[in-house]
Amino acid sequence: MSARHTTALVRGAGDERGAGSARDERRERSVRVEAAAGGEPAGSPGPSEPTGPSEPTGVAGMTGEPGPHGPSRPHGASAAAGALWEAVIGLDEHAAITTVMRAMDAGLHAESALLDVIAKTQARVGEEWAANRLTVAQEHAATAINERAVAAVARHPSARTTPTRGKITVACVDGEWHGLPARLLAEVLRLRGWCVDYLGPQVPTPRLVAHLHRTGPDAVALSSSIATRLPTAHATITACQAAGTPVLVGGAAFGPDGRYARLLGADAWAADARSAADHLALGPLPHPHAAHQPIDDLPHLADQEYTLVARTRPRLVRTVFAGLQDAHPAMRDYSDLQREHTAEDLSHIVEFLGVALYTGDADLFSGFLLWTAGVLDARRVPAASLLAALEILGRELKDFPRSTAILRQAARRLTAAASGPAAASSPASSAADAAAVLRQGAQCLTDPPSTAAGTSV
User: Fold this and answer.
1) How far is CA 130 from the centre of its chain?
2) Strand order in the sheet with 268-269
3) Nearest CA-CA partner of 14 in 398, 420, 403, 382
4) Which residues contact 197 (CB under 8 A, 6 or more apart)?
5) pTM, full prediction
6) Which of 53, 90, 213, 359 is at a distance of 20 to 30 A from 238, taking alpha carbons?
7) CA nearest 172: which of 225, 210, 120?
8) Confidence of residue 347 (pLDDT cuts 50, 70, 90)
């Protein structure tokens, strides 16, 4: 994904795992994919401000400034966030929930508890993982504790509200498992007087559309943190609009400025939960345009490059893997699990290439690889060896002009990044380096600095 956002999925690989620890590799892959995505950014800038009511407003991070319709941010939120961080890092669920409940008992508004305390803490979890200061296990535990803290806030007496507005359906795009950002938005909307149907993560489009037909909400709020879900998000947006329901989108996948929300035809985009709630409070979203096909928004897809790359991904992965083995014979000594992980990592690279082709944005791919290089650098793993995979992939796609242009740009940017002082002191030249990059790097590729927004819906 290309975002700063979440850019992150999680934790520390370098010192947590020993050379042959398959268990830690598994854990790290899962974690990274989480941190980057759903509002648990790892080391990425926060969400950008919304561009204004005329732009799609999305639902993304939960750290924006309060809008005119939301509560002010009391000073107690900062102290509570600090205390929650200590409890989360100590893996003390009881202390974490007690911290939030006491702050609310003392007058902290429920919305501030959600966004200025819990979401802020979750964002810090991602940042600390990206910097290799948290382990995979710590990140998973922290996320679980924060999810339970959200549930506790929803049950607090001060959070009880009577619906006074219309109905909103909140859901994650199919394949998007980061549900915390969307859950935070759902709770904020309830606090603002909306009747909310929260459908959770990974909602298949047909089931979402069936729900819209059955319940007739005023709008659907779609969340996606990982850029590789954009093609699915596009199909979902189009299907919801065809059902007559306007779509508000948010999350790192749509870019810090909502660029992909506009590209894919969403009716609105918001940079964070507060701005999403403020936007919805201004009045009904515009009625969707007449039914159309996704390709109507993206005429460049007519060249079929995206379709062909997406369909041949398994073959491309096998070819690149074989080419890397020829270039680095040490890879032939990999265990079965290491080979499996390396193939999965290469698959992530090809998948991100596909999304760059889909959106027509070369920066999405190169931004993803640069973000990955930064994460690897924090773990003392040379990222320059990623260039070997790009070179082989480029040879395979030599007849695809947009693909080769995207790969060349990414290679140039990686080369420039690797030519800095740090690269000079730790060159990536050995087969072990290349193997480590592929084994540890692509797994955490999630949202490059251009589309990740932070804790977002």
Assistant:
1) 14
2) 195-203, 167-173, 219-223, 247-250, 268-269
3) 382
4) 167, 168, 169, 170, 211, 215, 217
5) 0.77
6) 53
7) 225
8) very high
C-alpha–C-alpha distance, residues 455 and 127, integer Å: 11
pLDDT digits (tens, 9 = 90+) for 146-162: 999 999 999 999 999 99
The SS3 call for residue 24 is: helix
- Tokens at 188, concatenated: 């904020």
Look at residues 261, 296, 303, 316 and name the one whose alpha carbon lies nearest to residue 453: 261
- Distance separating alpha carbons of residues 334 and 20, to the nearest angstrom: 10
Round to whole Å and give the CA distance between 76 and 108. 7
Question: CB neighbours of 412 closer than 8 A, spacing ≥ 6?
Answer: none
For residue 340, give both structure tokens.
Answer: 């499996």
Structure tokens given for 435 = 């193997």
Task: Tell me: pLDDT of 406 over 50.
Answer: yes
Residues linked to residue 247 through DSSP beta bridges, in sequence order: 220
Residue 222 Ramachandran class (φ > 0 left, ψ -120 to 50 alpha, else beta): beta
Outline where DSSP puts E strands in 97-211: 167-173, 195-203
DSSP 8-state class, residue 242: H
DSSP one-letter code for 254: G
Element (H, E) at 268: strand 268-269
**439 near 25, Cβ under 8 Å?**
yes
Backbone angles phi, psi at 322, to 5 degrees: -65, -40
C-alpha 320/C-alpha 455 separation (Å) is: 34
Q: Tokens 């660029």 appear where?
A: 259
What span, in angstroms and rounded, lies between the C-alpha atoms of 150 and 26? 27
- Express each pLDDT in 416-448 by its tens digit: 887 765 443 443 334 444 444 444 443 443 333
pLDDT tens by residue, 162-177:
999 999 999 999 999 8
